[in-house]
Amino acid sequence: MEVYNNDNQRDQTEAVKQFFANNGKALAVGAVIGIAALVGWRFWVNHQQNNALASSDRYQQLTSTLKADNPASIQALASFVDHDKTSYGALASLTLAKTYVDKSDLQNAAKILEQGLQDSSDQSLQAVIRLRLARVQSELKNPDAALKTLDAVKGDNWTGLAADIRGDILLNKGDKQGAAAAWRQGIKSEVSPAVKQMMQTKLNNFS
């Protein structure tokens, strides 16, 4: 048995030597490529983290100094939205849109919200932007566009809020039955008690 073990070990050793002789260069190249890929991945992750921190700092700075009566601060935030293609740019679009709405500049509010939608892949953030955009589009007397925007809202957490806005839009279009149906759907959804009570009050106005 011992002889068998010794012979087996020698065979294995020779096989390993032969393997590295035949494949040594390929293994070396593969190792170099693997290390390069790992280094590149870590560099990319660090780069993304640094960019996110820079975007966060810039967002905080611009939003904290934003003033409706200061055109320069509005332009600075608009420039940030234009150039920062991250969720911080999308968040900034919400802040900037509110400023435009307060100034009754609904066209620019809609434009900046549409831009914000393109800058984030986060479903919840996109839902918030679409809810705001639908309100603005309704105010711009474009109810069909507003309803289409609401159709794109994803996530059960937003169903109730979308239904409330949909009801308001349909009511403004003169579709009382559609509005009532939307609010009934919203009341059944997962939404805060305050919003449910608001929709119930709207429904009660039809009785």
UniProtKB/TrEMBL annotation:
Membrane topology of the entry: Single-pass type II membrane protein
Subcellular compartments: Cell membrane
Gene3D superfamilies: Tetratricopeptide repeat domain
Claim: Transmembrane is one of the keywords in the record: yes
GO CC terms, sorted: plasma membrane
Keywords, in A-Z order: Cell membrane, Chaperone, Membrane, Transmembrane, Transmembrane helix
Pfam families to which the protein is assigned, alphabetical: TPR_21 (PF09976)
PANTHER family reported for this sequence: ANCILLARY SECYEG TRANSLOCON SUBUNIT, UPF0070 PROTEIN YFGM
Protein name: Ancillary SecYEG translocon subunit
